Amino acid sequence: MLRDLVQSVFAFVNKLKLFKTHIQKGDLAHFPALLKASRQVTSAALNKQTARYARLDENLHESFVTRFRDLQLKRPKITFLVDPFNAETYCLKAPLVTDEAAAELEMIDLCEEDQLKPALREGTIEFWKTVSMEKYPNVKWAAVKILSMFGSTYVCESVFSTLKHVKSKH
């Protein structure tokens, strides 16, 4: 669920960048209604409208980047949380962990523990329940701290649902 939220936000931001680039080039492939309307107006009128749409797109892009700046900064930590086997070993820094060197070694050991990999398919929270606090104290404690940022799965799920609803309307 968390991975889907993060992916949806960043995919949308990247699409906004793509749309702006295409609009500025006059490529309206992603805008079928605008493409159809463009056939009925002069090129000067079309240029004026596409410049306006490019500005609107840029404003929307900037708004999303600003609103989700914290999420962007936390992205490596969220990657660690939802997919520790593909996270960078150096992603765990203070204040998330007290011993960065030990956390790096634990990450390497965790990534090589094949019997934990199937547990990740059960879900993020279920996976971290199976990780041993004795064997991976720094890594497990970091995961608990990151999970606590979201308060509850209800909050996370409702934010994701709201985002999907907004995306589907626009």
TrEMBL record:
Pfam families documented for this protein: Dimer_Tnp_hAT (PF05699)
Ranges for domain HAT C-terminal dimerisation: 121-169
Q: Which GO terms describe its molecular function?
A: protein dimerization activity
Task: List, alphabetically, the InterPro entries matched.
Answer: HATC_C_dom
Q: What is this protein called?
A: HAT C-terminal dimerisation domain-containing protein
